[in-house]
Structures are given as structure tokens and as C-alpha cells.
């Protein structure tokens, strides 16, 4: 159980960091938010992979396509976050 949690956090960090590198512009988020971005992106990528290719976790836990899907999902989440949730009420 602990190994699974550590793996999820590491994959989240890698996927979130790669998403931040791929999306242009500056993102003012912490390392913890980068991990959360990667974890949420993994769920989004897994859902899209299941919808498009009808594959799930029973086909293997760590797959290259899962890692790529995590990065794609994290990029999508970051784009939505930067367009919708990243706005503040006061402009400087």
C-alpha cells in the first residue's frame, strides 16, 4: 500500500513537471500543486485512454502508454486551470 502511494506521487511529480514544461507561459504553482496536477492528470489520462482504447488497469500497472496518458491528461488539466481557475479578481 505504501509503495503504491509513493509510486502515485512520483508519477504525479513527473507528469506534472513535464506538463509544466510543455505548456507555454509561466505557472505560479508549488511543487505540491505540481504533484496534484500530475495525479489529477493521470486520472484524466486514464479515463480518456479507457474511453478511446477500452484498456484498463488490469492490462498492467506501469505501462509507457499510461505514463504518456498521464502527461497528456496533466497538460489538459493545466490548460483548463490556467484558462479558468488561474484568474484572480484583482488585476495588477
What is the averaged pLDDT score? 79
Shape: globular
Q: Which sequence of SSEs, written as H and E, runs from N to C?
A: HHH
| Oligomer kind | single chain
Strand segment count:
0
- Biggest sheet descriptor: none
Number of helices: 3
Structural class: mainly alpha
Q: What is the strand content?
A: under 5%
| Amount of helix | over 70%
| Ends apart, CA distance between termini | 46 Å
**pLDDT < 50 runs, ≥5 residues:** none
Rg for CA atoms: 14 Å
Number of domains: 1
Give structural notes.
With 92 residues, the protein is an all-alpha fold. The chain has one domain. 72% of the residues lie in helices and 0% in strands. The protein is built from three helices and no strands. Helix 1 packs across helix 2. The relative contact order is 0.19.
Descriptive key words:
72% helix; mainly alpha; single chain
Short description:
This protein is mostly helical. It has one domain (2-80).
Which helices and strands, and how do they pair?
Elements: H1 2-22, H2 31-53, H3 64-85
Amino acid at each position: 500500500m505504501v509503495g503504491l502511494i509513493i509510486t502515485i506521487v512520483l508519477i504525479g511529480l513527473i507528469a506534472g513537471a513535464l506538463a509544466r514544461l510543455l505548456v507555454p507561459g509561466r505557472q505560479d504553482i508549488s511543487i505540491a500543486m505540481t504533484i496534484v496536477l500530475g495525479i489529477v492528470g493521470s486520472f484524466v489520462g486514464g479515463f480518456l485512454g479507457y474511453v478511446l482504447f477500452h484498456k484498463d488497469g488490469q492490462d498492467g500497472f506501469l505501462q509507457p502508454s499510461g505514463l504518456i496518458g498521464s502527461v497528456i491528461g496533466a497538460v489538459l488539466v493545466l490548460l483548463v486551470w490556467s484558462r479558468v481557475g488561474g484568474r484572480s479578481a484583482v488585476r495588477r
